[in-house]
Amino acid sequence: MLLDFDKLGAWKWLLVGTTVLVCLFLLLPIVFIAALSFGSSRWLIFPPPSWTTRWYGELFSDSRWLTSALTSLQIASVVTVLSVVIGFLAALGLNRGSFAGKELLRALFLTPMILPVVVLAVALYAFFLQIGLAGTTPGFIIAHLLIALPFSIISIGSALDGFDKSIEDAAILCGASPWEARLRVTVPAISHGLFGAAVFSFLASWDEVVLAIFMASPTLQTLPVKIWSTLRQDLTPVIAAASTLLILFTIVLMVIAALVRKGRKS
Amino acid sequence: MAILATAGRDNGRRRTLQKRKSGFSFAVPALLLIILFFVTPVLGLLLRSVTEPELGLQNYAELIGSGTYMRIFANTFLVAGVVTALSVVIGYPVAWALVVMPRYWSQVVFAIIILSMWTNLLARTYAWMVLLQRTGVINKTLMGLGLIDTPLTLVNNLVGVTIGMTYIMLPFVILPLVGVIRSIDPAILRAGALCGANRLQCFTHILLPLSLPGVAAGALMVFVMALGYYVTPALLGGTANMMLAEMIAQFVQSLVNWGMGGAAAFVLLVVTLLLYAVLLRFFGASRIG
């Protein structure tokens, strides 16, 4: 009765009403930011007196925004590749291996995901200051790799769970070397898991703020760090323009991910 | 001869298959990374909390002894608690609706939830900073409706932090709850109705109790996440209303006091791990993912 939409009675309107309100609440900042980025008021008056693309012009004419976006892209790309490769190997070991302490190892690998990021950030910052990696690109990559890796291990692990290992064994019995079998039989079969791992790893690095604040130096800033430091000074509409572009980028990624998922089903 | 040779080769391949059993070596790269850049730095930080400025627990004593720090702890737990409660109360009906709604509409709602979840955290927080300011849209709308006479202070205080964090946490409550409610057999509710229970009784005696483990697990997870949150409280809370994560960052960045920073980080670490242990102990690993 309560789980049948047509028999909910008055409860139906309570549920639908809450859901509509929550959807509006969730959409409000996103739509608002996009509208604001075209508003002419520097003081973010809403609704704006007139419309303009001036803030996008300011965004693109300031090379620091572009540089930080490229830095983000570069770091996120390296993190994605490393995370998928190391995550694939780790998932193979965790899913198929039979060694003592396997579950403990799995828990250890996933811990960076559940730990408050600020603890990891402060600890890594201290460590990197001592070994000379603070404010360097490798330091940045290592920090983001730590939080991207759990996503890879989970995504690839669940794909491996759904793959019948005897197919790989059959390839080996037919004369393939173990690595040949893994790369030419298993990898194509779990490609959706690898793709998921890549998307999550990329976003984990691309959107990451807290580690980035601690890893950044005046000459090495990712996009979130640039937004953060600008935000701390004032609420300029240029940030609205940058945010709108980021939101568009997210939507594009979401659509691609959805299309890949759809393609796999059909 | 030929047959023997083939048999020998087959045995060799079977041995290859058996040899791969252990599989530990695959995990070595990840293990090295974690030990070198996760375990070592975290232990190093904890070590500094009991050795700087001198050996002993004085940093922890100072954390507990000072009213300022205790107020920050209280703020943190208060905000995390309120955010958790709001997220569950608002999120439960939405999760429920998602289970029973016509498929097309539920997909639209799912898309909105995922979009908000994937939107850059700073972009969302920036939006709330602008929306909630004194001359912001929220205040203007409320004044326009005649609900208030003077603008409310919604930002640079814990109200702003609570609104901003509830916004972020809602999807983390809704999505797991959908799975929990979906797994409940509608036949049990029909049976309840056949036995004469009205809708309210069905809810309080069947649906709610059956979904309670999922609610508790989701609530605990959101609470833990909220405890350690840094960005949103720092931007929406202002300096006067610091939360724990901000305090840790301040100790390290502004005050360069690694002893106190390490101690505060250790407290947050222990509380987080304890709550996760509770989560795993009572609700099992399957519910969390």
Automatic annotation (TrEMBL), chain A:
Cellular localization per UniProt: Cell inner membrane; Cell membrane
Gene3D superfamilies: MetI-like
Keyword Cell membrane among record annotations: yes
InterPro entries: MetI-like, MetI-like_sf
Annotated ranges, domain ABC transmembrane type-1: 69-257
Family note: Belongs to the binding-protein-dependent transport system permease family.
The name this protein goes by in its record: ABC transporter permease
Organism of this sequence: Rhizobium lemnae
Taxonomic placement: Bacteria, Pseudomonadati, Pseudomonadota, Alphaproteobacteria, Hyphomicrobiales
Automatic annotation (TrEMBL), chain B:
Membrane topology: Multi-pass membrane protein
CDD domains attached to this UniProt entry: TM_PBP2
Transmembrane segments: 23-47, 72-92, 104-123, 158-181, 202-231, 251-279
Keywords: Cell membrane, Membrane, Transmembrane, Transmembrane helix, Transport
Subcellular location: Cell membrane
Every ABC transmembrane type-1 domain range: 73-279
Listed name of the protein: ABC transporter permease
Organism: Rhizobium lemnae
